[in-house]
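Memo to structure team: turn this sequence into structure tokens by end of day. - J.P.
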Amino acid sequence: MAQAIYNPWVDDLRSDTDAVRLFCFPHAGGSSFQFRAWQLGTRMQVTPIHLPGRGKRITENPVSNLRRLAKEVFNGVSSEFHSPFCLFGHSMGALLAFEVARLASARQIPPEYLFVAGAKAPHLRTLPRRTYDLPEAEFLQEIHKLNGMPREVLENEELLSLVVPILRADFQAVDTYTFLSGEPPLTCPIAAFGGLEDPLVPEQDLRAWRQHTTREFSSLLLPGDHFFVNTAYLQLTAEIARLFQQNRP
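Reply from structure team:
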């Protein structure tokens, strides 16, 4: 059996596994912890991406430019793209997974599938105002509206001092992201998932991901708000596994 290869971006990559890796990208302020309970059977290996500034990389500075972060991720994990792989991203992570898919496709190593959740199609990224540079009280109020942070964190100054810089960097990455329209659509299928009670991503904006692939496209709404990926993860992972199996020869 091959030895595990250390890589700061992922855990325990092994060159002898037969499973297709599903590289998973978290939401703004999120971490690989989000995917700890995911199980997709023996044919898919859930491989969370560790972003700088959190978890085992807490001593590193977070990256506030989404396209630069995508390049860093690609350079860090593309050595594993010699075997079949898929990408999943939630919210900010969806944009990040999309940009990584573009980079991989440009180098003739496209993913087998791109799964996105809780995100408008990238060409629809128009925000009425920036969030990342709001005064702290207003910034935290916006975070609270998203229902994505436990109250015990919002009420703990020590934890906030660790989390807020990461959140600001991630929100800056999203707020300043611009879609480059000159690149061809992806050649892998795309599945887009949304929350039935998510006020941030209307169903039509979710379906607009269709234009970013020349292959099959599907969209599905699941119970929950913007963080339905945490509350409805059993339904979500079952659908990901079903679509993946359906796409396999």
